[in-house]
Every structure is written in C-alpha cells, then in structure tokens.
Design brief:
The protein has a single domain (9-242), classed as NAD(P)-binding Rossmann-like Domain (Rossmann fold, 3-Layer(aba) Sandwich). It has eight helices and seven strands, in the order E-H-E-H-E-H-E-H-E-H-E-H-H-H-E. The protein has helices spanning 18-29, 41-53, 68-81, 105-130, 154-174, 195-198, 201-210, 220-230; strands spanning 9-13, 33-38, 58-62, 87-90, 136-141, 179-186, 241-244. It has a seven-stranded parallel β-sheet with strand order 3-2-1-4-5-6-7, with helices on both faces. Helix 4 (105-130) links the parallel strand 4 (87-90) and strand 5. It is globular and about 50 Å long. It starts with 8 loop residues before the first strand and ends in a 7-residue tail after the last strand. It binds NADP nicotinamide-adenine-dinucleotide phosphate.
Amino acid sequence: MKIDLSGKTAVIVGGSGGLGEAMANTLSDAGAAVAIVGRSQAKLDKVAGAIKAKGGNVESFTADMTSESDVARLAKDVNAKFPNPQILINSAGVNNRKDLTEFTLKEWTTVVDSSLVTTFLACHAFIPGMKGTGYGRIINLSSIMAHISLPGRTAYSSGKAGLLGLTKALALELASEGITANCISPGPFHTEMNLPVINNPEANKMFLQKLPVGRWGKVEEIGGLACYLCSDLAGFITGTDILIDGGWTAS
Ligand SMILES: NC(=O)c1ccc[n+]([C@@H]2O[C@H](COP(=O)([O-])OP(=O)(O)OC[C@H]3O[C@@H](n4cnc5c(N)ncnc54)[C@H](OP(=O)(O)O)[C@@H]3O)[C@@H](O)[C@H]2O)c1
C-alpha cells in the first residue's frame, strides 16, 4: 500500500537536520508540500536543495522556535506560502549531557525549552489553521529518555517526558476536530545530536550493548513511521507514543 499525502502541507520544525530532514524527505516523496524550519539558513538551503532536486515542493524558513516573536513571524510567512498547513512535526531539540549539579539554570532550561517551548509555540501558532477540515496531524519527537534514562540526562529526560504529557492533553483537546497528536520516541539514531556519544568509543559501545538489534537507527527508518501517522490509515491513533528504538526499552 502506497501512502499518498498529495494536497497536504507539512511544517517540519527541525527539518534542516537529522530526523527532521529524513521526515521532510519521506513526506515530500509521498507528495506533501513541506515547510522546513530551523535556525541556520545554510542547513535549510542544503536540505531544501536536495528535496527540490527530486521535484519536491519545499520552502525553508528560519526561526528560533524558542522565541515567541520568531514563531509569530514564521506562522505569517508559512501561511503566505502554504495556507493553513494540516501537518505539524516538532523535531527541534538540543541535548547537553552532564550531572544535574553541574548545570547552570540557563543551560538546563535551554535543553528543556528546546523540546517543550518549541512544541508549545509551534502548536499555538499552527493549530488554529488546522481546525475545521476534519483532518490534522501533530507529531512530537520525544525520546526513549522519557521512558528510561541515563546519568547526565536530567534536562533532556524532563523535556521529553513533558512532551508525553503535553501530547496526551493536546490529543484530547483536538480529538473532535479529527486532528491527532502523537509522540514518536526514538532510540539512538545516527545524527548530529548524538556525535558526542558516537565519537566516544566507550559510550558508543555501551549504547550498542543496550541495542538488541546491534546497531544505531538509520534516519530513513523514522520517515516511514511519520508518513504512516500522517496518513488516513492512522486516524484512530491519537494521544499515544510510538517507540522506535531497536528493542532498547524491551530489554
Ligand atoms: N537522534 C536521536 O537519536 C534521537 C533520539 C531520541 C529523540 N530524538 C529527538 O528527535 C528530534 C530530532 O533529533 P535529531 O537527532 O534529528 O537532532 P539534530 O540532528 O541535532 O537536528 C535538530 C534540528 O532541530 C533544529 N533546531 C534545534 N533547536 C532549534 C530551535 N531552537 N529553533 C529551531 N530549530 C531548532 C536544528 O537546526 P538548527 O541548529 O539550524 O536550528 C536541526 O535542524 C529532537 O527533538 C531529539 O531530541 C533524537
């Protein structure tokens, strides 16, 4: 069965790298128009160029998604290009790994805000335009670190666990509109965010030992799941979280 998202527009916050880039590619391949968002224009240009080269309909937008004024400008600019996008994927996020007592408050809130504030502001900006058509999809990137954790992850786990709560409540608020809200919780994927682990032989070995499949996730593996959640096949899935982690949390 081939998923067809033609006629739909997806805003992919964090679409300029890693998992967001992979989801932008898959949704575009399935026919959706995609609006990719990040802070670095250079990163956005690279991703948009590759999607355009395949014939995709893509526009890029710079915004710091923790900034209320940036998000207000973004919503205006996106709506001018693609009125009332029906799909929103929140894939922005940063990590900073250290013990709680080593964090400054600013460092800690930067990590939490990169998940929670970015998602709140994006939902706040784009949900009103989704209402009234009987269809909408919101996907928030949480993490297995919302379910289990490791030393040094107090900020990251807090932000990601917060997203699970936000997503459940949001799903209830939007259920009667035909708008679903779900989390995807990835295990370790080979992206820029994980370079500190990948480049540390001891940490890399520890991660691989925790992965029953014996390897890191490939970014393309996120795209299929996102595409499915955006399809009509997944209209009954809402308020939940799908783990994609090579079996880490099952072991
Ligand atoms: N990779 C994994 O193994 C993994 C596992 C579990 C969960 N996750 C979650 O999945 C999501 C994507 O991770 P990833 O590995 O793809 O990360 P990544 O490769 O570092 O990409 C993150 C993207 O978010 C953008 N971004 C970060 N902060 C932003 C902000 N304040 N405003 C706008 N854009 C921002 C970045 O672009 P700019 O830097 O240009 O802004 C980049 O495009 C994150 O939420 C992450 O926590 C990842």
